[in-house]
Amino acid sequence: MLHDADAYGYNIALALAEETTRMPEHSIEVIDLGLTWSDAMDRGLIAETVERRKALPERLVERLEEEEPAALAAFEGEQTRFGDRPSWKVQRVELNALSSRALVEYVEEGLRAHGADEKFFPPEEVANELALDAQREVIRTRARGWLAEVFDLDGLVEELVADYGEEPPDDLAGTMATAAAEDRAAYWPETVVEAVEAQLDERGPELRARFDELLGERR
Fold this sequence. Notes:
The structure is a single chain. The chain is mostly helical and 219 residues long. The protein has helices at 7-17, 37-42, 58-67, 69-76, 100-113, 124-151, 153-164, 172-182, 188-202, 204-217; strands at 48-52, 78-82, 85-92. Helix content is 59%, strand content 8%. The protein has a three-stranded antiparallel sheet with strand order 1-3-2. The mean pLDDT is 90.
């Protein structure tokens, strides 16, 4: 896991790994990649001062006393008051203090330190399935390209557009007004496109016949 260099981040790492009151039988191995306070200081990251309104959990204090006294000092901070309750001015360093590149490097460094730098490859049957999908798609793409060369499909399409794509639907203003009257949220460009589709649907047989004629000229 990865976390900020603050009491909350450290405590989350403990809670994930150890049993708690709510999960008395819980125990899993958690590899804590930080961000640790010492790592943050070694990298010259800037700490920020924030207010915490709860005392540090005792188990976190015990851990920090043994492992990171400097972090304990930063996280305990200076006790103040928030109304009639105690609070503490503490320091923390968040992960976003690292640049994107520095964060990736930090994570990769932690993974290598724990032996998690081996390249992963899927089972062969998974790779075979991907290869078959890619193979079919490459064949389809190349076949379409060859068809376009033989039949000059781009030219055919442009002729069809010239024949049927130069006359807008009748009374678009009325169509838009009607759509808006039926639905105030109607978006006029969508109304225009729907009118065009309806117009071409009406001329569908004629459009297809012209397409077949142009295709036949290219055979």
